[in-house]
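Example record used in the benchmark description.
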Amino acid sequence: MAQAKLVGKKGTVYKFQQKKITQKKAAEIATANDLIQEMLLEKKVGQMTVEGQSLEQIGDMLGIPTSRAFEITKNLIAKWSGPLSFTANEVREIAVKRLDLMLSLTAQMAVPHPIISKETGLPILGDDGKPIMTPPDLNAIKIMLDIEDRRAKLLGIDAADKLKEKALDTLTRRYIGGEPDGL
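Model output (structure tokens):
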């Protein structure tokens, strides 16, 4: 049984044990593996970017330098804004998903929930036998409202109300004798 050993571009050592493997075939497999690893890394960086992670956070979580995270993000943005760019609806959908994630995380902080023991993983009970709850976080509630407001603007939920207000304003101006377009 022949053994082929090859070092990929990233320094990964690939060992192959087959009856008839050539160095050329081993190089093709190593190159394909490097490409797959690069594509997976790019996908992870893209997901983390959409989620709102900073370059430092991306680098720390994936074990890559911040400069590498920046390079991958820059290339992704170039792809996204090039001939294969997203439509306005796709960008809106990504933004809404990102806001939904932030809303979910903020809601966990805003709403009272049982305090969990680090030792047992169970809720800590008070003298009355009921779980001790965290107080509501008013700052988190304000952030939730801001996120929901931004989400509504993105989805055009409040656009109908604004149109009604504008129509009412226009009618009011006409009845008091003002020219609506000139005011």
